[in-house]
Description:
The complex is a heterodimer. Chain A is mostly helical. In chain A, 75% of the residues lie in helices and 0% in strands.
Amino acid sequence: xxxxxxxxxxxxxxxxxxxxxxxxxxxxxxxxxxxxxxxxxxxxxxxxxxxxxxxxxxxxxxxxxxxxxxxxxxxxxxxxxxxxxxxxxxxxxxxxxxxxxxxxxxxxxxxxxxxxxxxxxxxxxxxxxxxxxxxxxxxxxxxxxxxxxxxxxxxxxxxxxxxxxxxxxxxxxxxxxxxxxxxxxxxxxxxxxxxxxxxxxxxxxxxxxxxxxxxxxxxxxxxxxxxxxxxxxxxxxxxxxxxxxxxxxxxxxxxxxxxxxxxxxxxxxxxxxxxxxxxxxxxxxxxxxxxxxxxxxxx
Amino acid sequence: xxxxxxxxxxxxxxxxxxxxxxxxxxxxxxxxxxxxxxxxxxxxxxxxxxxxxxxxxxxxxxxxxxxxxxxxxxxxxxxxxxxxxxxxxxxxxxxxxxxxxxxxxxxxxxxxxxxxxxxxxxxxxxxxxxxxxxxxxxxxxxxxxxxxxxxxxxxxxxxxxxxxxxxxxxxxxxxxxxxxxxxxxxxxxxxxxxxxxxxxxxxxxxxxxxxxxxxxxxxxxxxxxxxxxxxxxxxxxxxxxxxxxxxxxxxxxxxxxxxxxxxxxxxxxxxxxxxxxxxxxxxxxxxxxxxxxxxxxxxxxxxx
Lengths: 299, 304
């Protein structure tokens, strides 16, 4: 109480000072300037992407800093697959969506099942699995790429999107296990017990009680898994080389290697590829941030 | 404490119960279900983590590979690059993220709106933006040199194809652009968890501005900051995309990092053993980091 009154008195004396308002405005102005710098810094590469996509091929190779004659022609070319590099664009897009969908589905399924077993059924030595997950989380995916490639070749899974789904699920599940275990602690055990007494089997408890109550965590992890699969390039590049089995990022990066790179088509492709995850991200932003900082700092 | 008590109690009860305690208190069919629920994850872990790790260790087990590697001048450059990338990139990014998380604590509608824009680099997939930045840095037609020319009439330098330091600098700046928003959001959440009363009390004691940051915010954020830095170091060590798409290792193979050099050796030079050896040579750095983090993540409250 006394703290509050002292604080009020302090601010009252500060307000009484004549230059207080001027100082506050000066500070606000500085902050706005910093904000402006941040906007320019953040949006510059995205502006460049949009600008080049709106330019005609010849205008790309000029020193213009905005499109002299903006048109949506490049997007039209991408949508109609009207360039030899973009021959299988929609097919490749479908591959990306397919990989994204199965990665999300399997990550949620496998992650929630093992978390249910460790956290709710309290299987003995469950901590071993938690540690295995933690260790996987800390191993950079790119470090396993070479053995993984050889392994997939010997399994005969080269050029198969399922090899990619396997990778994405492997590296997304550890995160899923953490979040599910953390979140699961907030669900009272009495619910499980009551259901068991009523004669529900573990699998019924899993489907009827555990999964519905875990919905927020499922959304957070699902978004994470989708963005992970959408962002990943190295494994897709190594394992998918056939034009029909390839995904959009692999096809896009192939443009880079050609001499007369059609930058306007590349940027249009890049934008079309980038839009779905951005929408998903903004839709589930709150949940995802909560998931990433779950537990937080209990200072 | 309680678990120790339970253990003691268990050892004295009947054999049937001991069997139960072995199964974590689960009965027959329930135990089977609990095992069944773990099988998919265990299968994924063995097939796609344990097996590739062992296979990788086997591929890179020959000492002669490391002799070959250490005598390679490109490898020596790569090690220096990796260290610079980790030390400068990660720390600069984390420090800026720490400062900016303080900025985003400000109240007001425009700060909230700004945060929405600011997280965009993290939400947009890596590859499209990296390709865009690659083109921005083009000497002749890139946006950066075009702006320099339009504004001041200076011919900008060849960012990616003349000097190793300019190219490496470009990689680090791109890396910061892409990853800073994520860590800012994490540190922002850490700051939000600090009770407001602490700041009020500190204010009464006369701590404002820098003093408040040094004596109140930072000590409370220090643990989170450390864990984030370590975690980010590991993630960055495995970062392939940034270097691959910004410089591609050039000019003259002078900006490779271990993650890209390993892939180059394995696939462009068709020498997987050497590639694996390049990656494995990061283990002396990796192992202490992973051990510290495993300990920290398990014991402290910080969780990502």
